[in-house]
Design a protein that fits this description.
Protein name: Methyltransferase-like protein 9
GO molecular function: protein-L-histidine N-pros-methyltransferase activity
Radius of gyration: 21 Å
Largest sheet: 8 strands, mixed
CATH class of the largest domain: Alpha Beta
Structural class: alpha/beta
InterPro entries: METL9, SAM-dependent_MTases_sf
Helix content: 40-55%
Pfam families: DREV
CATH architecture of the largest domain: 3-Layer(aba) Sandwich
Number of domains: 2
Order of helices and strands: HHHHHHEHEEHEEHEHEE
CATH topology of the largest domain: Rossmann fold
Keywords: Membrane, Transmembrane, Transmembrane helix
Strand order of the largest sheet: 1-7-8-6-5-2-3-4
Length: 320
């Protein structure tokens, strides 16, 4: 393993010596620091490549309430997840691209939110569920087709792509201008964030993945989801736990106007609380849930970033 890393590092240093622009940008001391950063990342990457990451998917069932525990679906790192990680390792090795992103981000962060920067640069794509995992959670087969879905806060649409083949019509909302452009390029119909819940449309699936902790009014969003969900429809909600709110758009202090009343400090305790104290009061009942890694493409320092995601499948409470 170490020999492969050293060979790749040697090639990079050789490029640095042969490229005046790189030399002038980093300087000799800077090149040493950069080389050390890349070397350390390569060592970590090799460890991840040999790891099955079972701990990304496990929960302590003894802490879950009995009603919730029996609805837990155990997943593992499947081929689609493995492929995403492989692309992360590959992109992290694009040294000159990563340097450009680093420089551009340092300038653009003065006047642009991080999500929009990623959209403009075409970086930082996310991964939540593979298509196979999505099918398992919704209990559908690969030939199943629904009429319509909406993905709230769809980002660049990479996560939406795992769900969209199962629906005739795909709608999305997004606050970031650059991300909206990417979604339109994928052929998704974009709805205004203030009009998607006006009652003119209802959906077989409402997807709300890692949005509630970034939303100014998460309680209102949940009630709107209930209102636009067709009878027999499903809601897919992903949450990074432990829960921490940070409103990126439309808030001066990054705090939400509405607060979710969540109890507990552990992943399992907060799963219990979300079902009992948040979803059920909003008129939604739990059908299934799982734990998966919320993955994001990285940079020169880290090939990918990972957070703990709880993913819930919900339905109308009166249908349970």
């Amino acid at each position: 393993m170490q020999s492969r890393v050293l060979i790749r590092l040697y090639v990079f240093l050789l490029i640095c010596e042969l490229t005046p622009a790189m030399y002038s940008y980093t300087g000799r001391r800077g090149r040493v620091t950069l080389a050390k950063t890349i070397y350390n990342r390569m060592i970590v990457d090799e460890k991840h490549k040999a790891d099955s990451h079972e701990y990304w998917y496990c929960v302590e069932k003894s802490i879950l309430s009995e009603a919730i525990s029996e609805k837990f679906v155990q997943f593992h790192e499947d081929p689609e997840t493995h492929e995403f990680l492989s692309k992360c390792y590959e992109k992290a090795d694009w040294v000159f691209t990563q340097l450009y992103h680093l420089l551009a981000k340092s300038v653009m962060s003065w006047f642009m939110e991080n999500t929009s920067i990623n959209g403009w640069l075409g970086r930082g794509s996310m991964f939540v569920l593979s298509q196979a995992q999505f099918m398992t959670l919704l209990n559908v087969k690969d030939n199943w087709i629904g009429q319509s879905m909406i993905d709230l806060g769809a980002g660049d649409g990479k996560v939406t792509e795992k769900m969209s083949p199962f629906f005739k019509q795909v709608f999305a909302t997004e606050t970031s201008g650059p991300m909206v452009t990417r979604l339109k390029n994928k052929g998704y119909r974009i709805l205004d964030i203030d009009k998607w819940d006006n009652g003119s449309l209802q959906y077989d699936l409402v997807s709300c993945l890692n949005l509630l902790d970034r939303a100014d009014k998460p309680v209102s969003i949940l009630h709107s989801i209930k209102r636009v969900l067709k009878p027999g429809g499903r809601v897919l909600i992903a949450l990074v736990l432990p829960f921490s709110s940070y409103v990126e758009f439309g808030s001066k202090d990054n705090r939400p106007t509405e607060k979710l009343n969540i109890e507990g400090s552990t992943f399992e305790a907060q799963c219990n609380s979300f079902v009992k104290d948040v979803f059920e009061p909003a008129g939604l009942a739990l059908e299934r849930f799982t734990r998966v890694p919320y993955l994001c493409e990285g940079d020169m320092q880290t090939s990918f970033y990972v957070l703990d995601d709880a993913v819930f499948v919900l339905k109308h409470k009166e249908e349970s």
